[in-house]
Amino acid sequence: MTSPLVEAYVRRLRRELKRHFIADRRIIDEVRDHLVDAVERAREHEDTSTAEAEAIERFGSPELVAAAFVADRTRILHRCLLVAATLAGIAIACVDAQPTWDDAGLTAGAMALAAALLGVLGPDRPWRWALAVGVWIPTYALMRTPAFGSVAMFVVLIFPFAGAYAGCVTRRALTQVPW
After folding, report:
1. pLDDT tens digit string along 142-162?
2. How far apart are CA 170 and CA 153, in angstroms?
3. Are 133 and 88 in contact (CB under 8 A)?
4. If you write DSSP's letter for every residue of 113-159 in order, what string do you get?
5. How far apart are CA 73 and CA 75, in angstroms?
6. What is the pTM of this model?
7. What letter does residue 177 receive in the DSSP assignment?
8. pLDDT tens-digit profile of 50-80?
9. What does the angle CA 103 – CA 104 – CA 106 come to, to the nearest 5 degrees?
């Protein structure tokens, strides 16, 4: 049986992980096992009342432990999202470059929607998703017609930036809701 201090710590950690949309029971079980082991080792050298508190203090706050798990998971996620953003941006630019395509509104909407979805999935770097989605149309315009007027095409980045930051704000609002 685990101590009330360990269980209180695990509850705080579970709540912190849920704020980041991580609900992996294995993480909770692993942390509980490590804490129980740390408490047992501390009891060998100290009295019971201080051993639990000191073992938990050495382990780190639940917020710190949750942040370490989040950082580990988001590193891989962000690489995948960057690839997805680049592919989405290239696909949108290819459709927009077709001679028969003449719907700037759909192109702008597609860029905003793709960036918004990426902003929800990866709210830490919305500028990255906006650039990866939106830079392809102005780049193509510059390559096709290298003139100062083509530089003005970078104004289309407004749409993916708006979408990415809207997605980021949405995600942050969702994580503030107590579950």
Report:
1. 888 887 777 778 889 999 999
2. 28
3. yes
4. HHHHHHHHH-TT-HHHHHHHHHSHHHHHHHHHS-SHHHHGGGGGGHH
5. 6
6. 0.64
7. S
8. 777 787 888 888 888 888 888 777 788 888 9
9. 70
Domain ranges of the chain: 4-60, 71-176
The structure tokens listed for 174 are 């969702």
- Angle, helices 48-59 vs 25-45, to 10°: value is 130
List the one residue out of 110, 106, 126 whose CA is nearest residue 170.
Answer: 126
| Residue bearing tokens 């962000």 | 78
Q: What is the DSSP-derived secondary structure letter of residue 43?
A: H
Mean pLDDT over the full length of the chain: 86
More confident residue, 77 or 82: 82
pLDDT given for residue 178 in this prediction: 56
Cβ-proximal residues to 3 (8 Å cutoff; 6+ apart), any chain: 39, 52
User: Is 123 exposed, middle or buried (CB count within 10 Å of its CB: 0-12, 13-18, 19+)?
Assistant: buried
CA angle (32 as vertex; 28, 37 as ends), nearest 5? 150
